[in-house]
Amino acid sequence: MTTQQKRSLRRSRSNRMIAGVCGGLAEFFGISAFWFRLGFIIAFIPGGVPGILVYLLMWIMIPKE
């Protein structure tokens, strides 16, 4: 990627388990999708609402590739 190219946040079509949110975040930040998936799983643990709400909002707001 050159300095003139701009990265855009998109849901991944190739690196996805449910909606591609974690895969898209991983491609945008340049790290493994495992870490985002782990973060969402940890956020699901305390009652589920914080993690589910954030994931659903990102699913709606982040466009597809």
Walkthrough of the structure:
This protein has 65 residues and is mostly helical. Helix 1 crosses helix 2 and helix 2 crosses helix 3. The protein starts with 20 loop residues before the first helix and ends with a helix.
Instruction: Give the SSE string.
Output: HHH
Counting DSSP H or I runs of 4 or more residues, the number of helices is 3
Based on secondary structure, the structural category is mainly alpha
Terminal-residue CA separation = 17 Å
Could you tell me the number of beta strands? 0
Helicity level: 40-55%
Beta-strand content bin: under 5%
Quick check: average pLDDT?
85
What is the alpha-carbon Rg in Å? 12 Å
Residue ranges: pLDDT <50 for 5 or more in a row? none
Quick one: biggest sheet? none
General form:
globular
